[in-house]
User: Which sequence fits this backbone?
């Protein structure tokens, strides 16, 4: 790369350069997942909306996309729930309070919360799917008067894999949300419900289908069965939303990795309406 | 209408003048084949080239480039972008590749502007050379309506006399940009075209139209609709049985722009670069997410993805065709998979 000069030190950030963010808190959630709270070193808020994601960099290791799991209503920090699955996330799990990482974002198209204002909301989350919708859950709880009835159903594979246990306790006791959870495989200590997440639909009161916005986030296999329950309750397909997972390298609609048929999940998503997904054969296959 | 007429000898002189202020890249003969390479003298360029094995994409969007450098200290870091702003002239670009560059220009400039591509593009002066005949067997640029280019170049040269190698052979010139016009006029190069030159240009165009064959027996405007009907065709799997998923089609394509990024650490471990390099949707791991799930595990689904991008999706997203009919993918394919054949077989199915 001869003759390519670096820019002056003070420059407007280019598309692929991350900005520094400091770890202000680390919390172990499960054997595989940690929750990190960050503040941008610039002191600015991230400026995200619920459902958006960031590209998280460890310079010298690499970059990976992570959903933002806190609401912008919570202050000038943002939280990321990171599952240890690869090289970058493995190194992220070595981070301590005070460390600095790189952030690009917020990226993508999140939940249209304004569209949800004045409506009832039903959120169905499975496994790690709770992380991206937690930003929306917090938003609704913080702006509670803007929403009607709020139902939240959460399923995990086992008690050990339950995420955000502090939140689960708060939500269970809160009058602001009708919260139910289940695990597929209970252990001996488990006193709660067991079974797949769709069994929780039995806990719901009758919903007003035309006034309810439904958000479904979880593994592809869960999506189909939850959509069945929702459509059976006559919710219009345009009121059903989902967040997709894909490999995102650039996060800005260039690199091609996250494409599902003709859409770039990083640009047009990760949040889609069910009506849009139906035409996207690769979205949930 | 032509803007100027110049001889080949004068064109070569002009390129040498350009070389005083710019890096010059053009077709260079290597055995039987041509490659775009940097040259010191205009004479090293062979404007009688048929086609270059790799497209000029590699000049604007190198196969591997460093995006920024970083320095780590005390747990923090700082970054400095690496932008290639070397003035460059690309000499000898055929209309298909000019059309491909137009697509790349658009992809890298809309919504999120890619500074790295655009820094190179701003500094690139393009002299196109029109093709009087098909450059090689199997091209389908006529079908893709990309064997002519009306924009996307600074100057376009139309070879009006047949004897390409002689010094006094005449090129008709069209200006594509103000930079192209100014370059020629400041050099006081070229004559105003006469009525006879315009007639020669008309003859050239008529001969060109006759020289290009159609290989797709339907209008390419119908290709997106055809693909729409063909998502579940058995042809994808039938063709993919031969596919080695080697990605040669992606690498040779002038409009493929997918890439991967990774970090490189210097030996000190305190500094390094983030690098991007071409990636290909035909490679097995392309759509694999962390944790190992692959959203396109079968060669058939990857092959269909590429053909849909080329024939439908890029056009729908960008308003510019995703395929320019250069047939580099077909020539590069180790399994002799042929995109025109796929289009025609799909058409046969209805």
Assistant:
């Amino acid at each position: 790369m001869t003759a390519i000069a670096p820019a002056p030190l003070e420059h407007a950030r280019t598309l692929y350069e991350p900005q520094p963010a400091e770890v202000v808190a680390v919390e172990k959630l499960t054997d595989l997942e940690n929750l990190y709270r960050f503040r941008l070193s610039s002191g600015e808020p991230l400026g995200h909306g619920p459902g958006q994601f960031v590209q998280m960099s460890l310079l010298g290791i690499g970059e990976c996309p992570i959903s933002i799991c806190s609401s912008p209503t919570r202050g000038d920090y943002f939280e990321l729930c990171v599952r240890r699955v690869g090289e970058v996330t493995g190194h992220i799990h070595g981070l301590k309070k005070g460390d600095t990482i790189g952030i690009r974002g917020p990226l993508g198209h999140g939940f249209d919360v304004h569209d949800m204002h004045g409506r009832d909301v039903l959120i169905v989350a499975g496994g790690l799917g709770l992380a991206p919708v937690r930003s929306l859950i917090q938003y609704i709880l913080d702006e509670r008067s803007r929403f009607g009835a709020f139902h939240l159903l959460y399923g995990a594979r086992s008690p050990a894999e339950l995420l955000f246990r502090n939140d689960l306790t708060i939500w269970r006791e809160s009058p602001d949300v009708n919260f139910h959870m289940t695990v597929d495989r209970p252990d001996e200590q488990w006193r709660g419900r067991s079974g797949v997440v769709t069994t929780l639909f039995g806990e719901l009161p009758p919903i007003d289908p035309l006034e309810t916005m439904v958000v479904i986030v979880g593994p592809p296999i869960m999506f189909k069965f939850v959509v069945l329950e929702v459509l059976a309750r006559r919710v219009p397909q345009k009121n059903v939303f989902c967040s997709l997972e894909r490999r995102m390298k650039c996060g800005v609609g260039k690199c091609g990795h996250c494409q599902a048929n003709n859409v770039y999940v990083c640009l047009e998503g990760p949040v889609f309406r069910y009506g849009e997904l139906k035409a996207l054969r690769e979205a949930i296959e | 209408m032509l803007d100027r007429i110049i001889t080949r000898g004068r064109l070569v002189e002009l390129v040498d003048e350009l070389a005083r202020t710019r890096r010059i890249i053009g077709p260079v003969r290597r055995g039987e084949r041509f490659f775009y390479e940097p040259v010191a003298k205009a004479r090293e360029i062979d404007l009688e080239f048929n086609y270059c094995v790799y497209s000029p994409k590699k000049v604007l969007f190198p196969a591997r480039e460093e995006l920024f450098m970083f320095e780590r200290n005390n747990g923090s870091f700082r970054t400095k972008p690496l932008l290639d702003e070397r003035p460059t002239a690309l000499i000898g670009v055929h209309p298909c590749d000019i059309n491909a560059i137009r697509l790349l220009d658009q992809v890298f400039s809309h919504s999120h502007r890619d500074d790295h591509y655009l820094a190179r593009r701003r500094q690139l002066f393009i002299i196109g050379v029109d093709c009087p005949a098909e450059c090689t067997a199997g091209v389908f640029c006529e079908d893709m309506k990309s064997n002519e280019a009306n924009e996307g170049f600074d100057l376009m040269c139309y070879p009006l006399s047949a004897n390409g190698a002689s010094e006094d052979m005449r090129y008709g010139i069209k200006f594509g940009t103000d930079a192209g016009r100014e370059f020629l006029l400041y050099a006081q190069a070229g004559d105003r075209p006469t009525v006879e030159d315009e007639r020669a240009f008309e003859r050239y165009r008529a001969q060109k139209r006759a020289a290009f064959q159609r290989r797709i027996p339907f209008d390419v405007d119908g290709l997106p609709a055809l693909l729409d009907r063909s998502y579940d065709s058995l042809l994808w799997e039938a063709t993919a049985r031969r596919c080695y998923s080697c990605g040669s089609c992606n690498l040779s394509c002038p409009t493929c722009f997918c890439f991967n990024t990774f970090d490189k650490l210097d030996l000190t471990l305190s500094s390094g670069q983030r690098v991007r390099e071409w990636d290909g949707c035909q490679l097995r791991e392309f759509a694999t997410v962390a944790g190992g799930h692959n959203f396109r595990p079968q060669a058939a689904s990857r092959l269909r993805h590429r053909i849909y991008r080329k024939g439908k999706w890029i056009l729908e997203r960008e308003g510019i065709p995703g395929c320019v009919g250069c047939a580099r993918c077909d020539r590069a394919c180790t399994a002799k998979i042929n995109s025109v054949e796929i289009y025609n077989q799909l058409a046969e199915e209805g």
In short: The mean pLDDT of chain A is 93. Residues 52 and 110 of chain A are 5 Å apart (CA to CA).
